[in-house]
Each structure stands twice: as C-alpha cells, then as structure tokens.
Amino acid sequence: MIDVVFQLLVFFLFTFKIVPVEGEIGVNMPPITAGAKPKSEEIELVEKVKIILRSGEDGSLVRILLGENEVGENPSALTLVLRDSVVGLSGKASDVEVEIDADPRLLYHFVIRVTNAIQRAGIQKINFTDPIAALP
Q1: Rounded distance between C-alpha atoms, residue 134 and residue 136, angstroms
Q2: Over its length of 136 residues, how does the chain's per-residue pLDDT go in tens digits?
C-alpha cells in the first residue's frame, strides 16, 4: 500500500506544470478576415494626436502636453480635453489616433493611467513612440 502511495506521489510531482502569472492589458484588435486587403477607397488618412509625457528626476509624471498645449499633470484633465477638443472636432472617437511620447524615465503606472484616461475619452487607437530613439 505504501508503494502505491509513493508511486502516485511521484507521478503527480512529475506531471504537475506551474503556469506563470500573466498580466492583462485590454487591446482591441481588428477582426480577422481571410486574406482580405483593404481597397484604396476604404483607407482614410487620420492625423495623429501627439501626447507628450514628461517625468521628474524621481520618475513621477510632471507634465502632460497635448500637441504643444500643456494639460497639466492630471490624467483626468487629459480625458476632458480629449473629449472636448479632439473627439468633438472629428465627431467620432473611432477616427482619432493618439501617439504617446513618454519620457524613458517615467514610471510605468503613470503611462497606464494616461492610457486609461485616453480610453475613457473613447479613443481606442493608441500608439507609442520608440523610447530608445528619444534618448540623447
């Protein structure tokens, strides 16, 4: 009886697989179409809205710039500005594309807060600039 218990124990030890914990970020991907290419008439050129995030020496968020206009340091204020000016001008939030240029020293949770603020404004197309290219 003891041999059977040890054999079962060894079997379960060797077959046990540890699954790594994964993070989750909501990403909306375009629907999959079987090899379909968009026609040139369907392509719309959308101007990108550039958001610049600047950090202090300690990695905290110091300034948020929308284009060349300063929004402050509060991501909630960015949501209001995006809803009023950018989304209001185009009429649809799905037409707006945002490009985030974050300071490489900026702590990651500030970038996530800004990304969430952009999504609260209804904008789903969010890109990031290359942080390595921004280094001097």
Answers
A1: 6
A2: 888 999 999 999 888 887 766 666 666 666 666 555 555 455 454 567 888 888 888 888 888 888 888 887 788 888 888 877 766 665 666 677 888 888 888 888 888 888 888 888 888 888 888 766 655 5
> Which residue has 């909306």 as its token pair?
28
State phi, psi for 49 to the nearest 5 degrees. Answer: -95, 125
Residue 57 three-state SS: coil
Domain of 92?
48-134
Q: Which two tokens stand for residue 80?
A: 């209001």
CB count within 10 Å of CB 114 equals: 23
What is the C-alpha separation between 86 and 81, in angstroms, rounded?
7
127 in any annotated domain: yes
The number of distinct structural domains making up the chain is: 1
Write down the H helix ranges in the chain: 2-15, 75-81, 88-90, 108-120, 131-134
Instruction: Scan for tokens 């995006």, then name that residue.
Output: 82
